[in-house]
Amino acid sequence: MLEHLELFFKSIFIDNMVFAVFLGMCSYLAVSKKVATAVGLGAAVIFVLAVTVPLNWLLDQYILQEGALVWLGPEYADYNLSFLSFIMFIATIATMVQLVEIVVEKFSPSLYNSLGIFLPLIAVNCAILGGSLFMQAREIGTFGLALNYGISSGIGWFLAILAIAAIREKIRYSNVPPPLRGLGITFIITGLMGIGFQSFGGMLTGDNEPPEGTEPTTAEIENVEEKDLIEKEEVEDAKAVSYNDVINE
């Protein structure tokens, strides 16, 4: 349970797709002018990541890794199909994006029209493919953790585009210098938000905590204090002797 919670919060705040690795920036900048549109696209990204990351985990575990085909028989134990990772991952992603596009067009034509070309472009959104590739690179051990990682990565991307959309709606009424209007101020805000998200790193990972086994015990502290006291007394005695010598002379 603790491992799931740590992965969940780390994927949202520390390893945020937008603010940490700058993936999915194209749709992040283009579809973040209105909150309603950003919510629709963010929900679609969450769904696609939640489905494709665990599916690609199964493909990686039972088909693509070296020796993954051993379940077919001992003669397949030496096969390594990892060179097919990109093709298989993209095929899974494209299939799910096509399903999402059909559902959105059927039940919400207005959202479908507002998203425009960026809805089918989820298939080639680097944040979606990045989720599966990071899952593979980090060697996530179980299907549950892969599902957790997919959902949390999608939520992180959703929060990023929702926050910037809300800010961009309000900033229309602000007095922004002409050279910074549009994408200029958006990039500046994105950088500041990235710094804010990264500030959670030490809190969630415990980077400031000392390594295990390095914390001194009570006996060690007492020994150090005793040694310091003895050294201090020796220094004071030496000063007293030298002062008496000077007086005698």
Task: Give the overall form.
Answer: flat
Order of helices and strands: HHHHHHHHHH
Average pLDDT metric:
83
Structural class: mainly alpha
Helix content: 55-70%
Rg over CA atoms, rounded to whole Å, is: 29 Å
- Number of distinct helices: 10
- Distance between termini? 78 Å
Number of strands: 0
**Major sheet summary line:** none
- Low-pLDDT runs of 5+ residues are none
Question: How much β-strand is present in the residues?
Answer: under 5%
What report would you give on this structure?
This protein is mostly helical. 69% of the residues lie in helices and 0% in strands. It has ten helices and no strands. It has helices at 2-14, 25-30, 35-64, 85-107, 109-115, 126-137, 143-171, 183-198, 201-205, 218-248. The longest helix has 31 residues, at 218-248. The radius of gyration is 29 Å and the shape is flat. The termini are far apart. The relative contact order is 0.16.
